[in-house]
Design a protein that fits this description.
single chain, alpha+beta, 5-stranded antiparallel sheet, 4-stranded antiparallel sheet, about 60% helix, elongated
């Protein structure tokens, strides 16, 4: 593979203008196409085989309009000056209802002035709108249009807000200032690392082309598959981080080879054949980890995983083609536009000294590192998982305001009603449905049960149940499970709704998580085995990446579960909270986030592992001294890995400013994990374990050595010959 990558890099360097034009054209065409044709996203969460999915399927069968996903819109009306039932407020609400009935695709409109439509304080009411014949994927647009039709009520001094989490102003995840901040911070790190503006701009330009092309492709895919609304921001976050890092690794290698006296074309081939191979294997581990999410049994998560993987593939492709093209065009001018006071410094002195220091006391370093990492990971044992409802939204946002009004007027459970669907092979009588509703109403935790509704065939009955608990409360999930085990008197009882769907998702993910983790670890270890032909190193590297995950989950638990600084990352506390509550309040983490975070972090952590192991192996093959090779490998990669880590931390930290809670969670987790991974793990834990293992690091049984294909990461052909030769180690390490 190294020979092929060297040829590819040399070809791209010789045809730099053509490669540059091709990538710019691809990025502009993909993004332009997505802007012209649109980038559809889907908020629908289906989990085949679950009870909630069965309930939703039954809801589509004969219950009339508005009972399918995206078919119901609720508007919450609040009168600050008096009861809604008094004039002229009632007249204004009636006018708004009449106006809504005239809107396209509106089939039924329930006025607040009905049983259960107005709160006991008579100041808060709910207008329920059911749609038919509309595009269920355009929930936000439908909600905004219907909300606009309620302007007559607003003109009378009433507050009208949509009780929907998909309104564009508040929940649609778009690119924005965070990307700009992340790119600026990355540019500053690159300028400091290279000392020249020209060199610093190459990774930035490459990453922007990669991300633009990736987002364009993802946008166009929305016309073919259901693309989650989080896909764009996840692809941008990961794509920027790995795109800049991969280009940085290649550029650093090229500048070292150029400084050693190699011609431009040979230096490009050498950089791509060595560091390019590491980029391909590192990117491969990220893609493997993300695509393994398809085994989670959660279609939304699986789609989010492989779509995010598109940005990683784009980053790898631009790194091994566009970067060498730019280097071929620039040649020695890559060092132009030097920045004063940031001249070239020795890259290995400090990190090599650290490597030598660790090599002299490996046991003490290992034990100390384990203690520190265990302390960082300890809070993860108390990680609080659960759905994040609109009560945790940004203060002043429409969904947050609707949530607060519904909670005050109708109780906390009204923001996440349960939909009980009872099915039978025969006819269900109204009396049987009423008896079932009465028995459900007697359960602990049930605040209100609506009148049952039979479908057209009278073989299914639907009952809306309001619990006493908000959607994010674990007791709401317990109530879902209790109703499902309830004796329906001969009827099959299913529970749907948002709370039920999230409960099923959490149960499915808990069941499948060990399988996904096992697949990711084994496949990543296999990829490393193919790369380094060393079983011990491959298995150790795969397991070592789990350590940084512990630190990441510990940080998430500290910030969100314990509330240490949750207010500082932008999570708005409840209304009228004290100053202490503002800084320390607990926020649940969506059940799918840890598994998604595991996949992303495992792949990203493997990047640094591959680059460090590549350098250590190259040194070991030259002289056969394991401790010396560890010190030299750490010295040659320490600065570039640190720079790469700083860039990723800056990019991920910038995304914490996003209003979306899921993005904040990923920003905190990724930033902490990368910082820990590039310092404690790569600087202390990995070197100490490699020193202790000695030659066993590179041991490979003869039978396995014969079976493994030769896919070496390193490319030695383009390297200048070492000044001092040494006897090669006799272990079977492959070449």
């Amino acid at each position: 593979m190294a020979r092929f990558l060297g040829w590819l890099g040399g070809w791209c360097a010789r045809h730099g203008r053509a490669v540059l034009a091709l990538w710019v054209t691809l990025a502009v065409a993909a993004m332009g196409g997505s802007l012209i044709l649109g980038s559809p996203v889907s908020s629908e969460v289906s989990i085949p085989g679950t009870d909630a999915q069965r309930a939703h399927d039954l809801m589509r069968d004969g219950f009339g309009p508005g009972y399918e996903p995206g078919g119901t819109v609720q508007l919450v009306v609040y009168s600050p000056d008096g009861p809604l039932i008094e004039e002229p407020r009632k007249e204004a609400v009636d006018e708004a209802v009449a106006n809504i009935r005239m809107q396209e695709h509106v089939k039924e409109v329930d006025s607040p002035f009905r049983q259960g439509g107005i709160a006991s304080n008579l100041q808060i009411g709910v207008i329920t709108v059911r749609l038919e014949g509309h595009d269920s994927l355009k929930v936000a647009e439908n909600t905004q249009r219907i909300s606009k039709a309620a302007d007559p009520a607003r003109a009378a001094g009433l507050e009208v807000v949509a009780n929907d989490s998909s309104t564009p102003a508040d929940k649609e995840i778009k690119t924005g200032p965070s990307e700009v901040i992340g790119v600026i911070c990355a540019l500053l790190v690159l300028i400091f690392a290279f000392g020249t503006l020209t060199a610093a701009l190459i990774p930035i330009f490459t990453a922007l082309v990669s991300v633009t092309a990736g987002l364009g492709v993802i946008g166009l895919l929305g016309h073919v598959v259901d693309v989650p609304k989080q896909a764009g921001i996840m692809a941008t976050m990961i794509g920027l981080g790995v795109g800049i890092d991969y280009a940085l690794f290649l550029l650093s290698r090229y500048r070292r080879l150029l400084a050693s006296g190699l011609p431009v074309q040979q230096a490009v081939r050498g950089a791509v054949s060595s560091s390019g191979g590491a980029v391909v294997f590192a990117g491969g581990t990220v893609v493997i980890a993300l695509t393994a999410l398809m085994f989670a049994g959660f279609p939304l998560l699986a789609t989010l995983g492989w779509i995010t993987g598109i940005s990683v593939v784009m980053a790898v492709l631009t790194s091994i083609t566009l970067v060498p093209a730019l280097l071929g065009l620039l040649g020695h001018r890559v060092n132009a536009l030097k920045v004063p006071f940031l001249g070239r410094r020795a890259e290995s002195s400090g990190w090599a000294a650290l490597g030598a220091w660790v090599a002299r006391r490996p046991w003490r370093v290992l034990i100390s590192s384990v203690i520190v990492l265990a302390a960082l990971a300890a809070p993860a044992l108390s990680l609080k998982l659960g759905p994040i409802d609109d009560g945790y939204g940004a203060q002043g946002s429409e969904p947050r305001r609707a949530y607060e009004l519904m909670t005050v007027g109708f109780g906390p459970g009204s923001t996440g009603p349960l939909t009980v669907v009872a099915a039978s092979s025969g006819t269900i009588t109204e009396a049987a449905a009423d008896r079932l509703a009465d028995r459900i109403g007697d359960l602990d935790g049930v605040a209100h049960v609506a009148e049952p509704k039979l479908n057209d065939s009278e073989r299914a009955a639907m009952i809306q149940v309001i619990s006493e608990y908000p959607p994010g409360d674990a007791r709401a999930a317990d109530l879902v499970r209790e109703i499902r085990t309830f004796d329906g008197g001969g009827l099959q009882v299913h529970v749907g709704g948002e709370v039920a769907a999230l409960t099923d998702a959490a149960d499915r993910l808990i069941e499948r998580t060990p399988l996904v983790i096992g697949i990711v670890v084994l496949l990543s270890a296999l990829l490393l085995l193919l790369a380094f032909r060393a079983p011990v190193v491959a298995l150790k590297a795969a397991l070592m990446n789990l350590v940084s995950l512990g630190a990441a989950f510990g940080a998430l638990a500290a910030v969100f579960s314990f509330g240490v600084g949750s207010g500082l990352v932008g999570m708005d506390p409840p209304v009228n909270a004290s100053f202490v509550q503002t800084l320390f309040f607990s926020v649940p983490i969506e059940s799918y986030v840890p598994l998604m975070l595991f996949a992303v972090l495992f792949g990203l952590s493997m990047d640094y592992e591959v680059f460090l192991l590549t350098a250590v192996r190259q040194s070991y093959l030259k002289h056969g001294d394991n401790a010396r090779a560890v010190a030299e490998g750490l010295g040659s990669t320490g600065r570039v890995i640190t720079s790469a880590a700083l860039i990723m931390v800056a990019v991920f930290t910038a995304f914490i400013a996003y209003p979306d809670s899921m993005v904040k969670t990923f920003g905190v987790g990724l930033a902490v994990a990368i910082a820990v991974d590039a310092t404690l793990i790569r600087g202390f834990l990995v070197p100490s374990t490699m020193v202790l293992l000695g030659r066993a690091n590179w041991w490979c049984p003869r039978w396995l050595d014969r079976l493994l294909p030769n896919l070496s990461v390193e490319g030695h052909d383009e390297e200048p010959a070492p000044a001092v030769t040494a006897e090669r180690p006799k272990a079977h390490v492959g070449t």
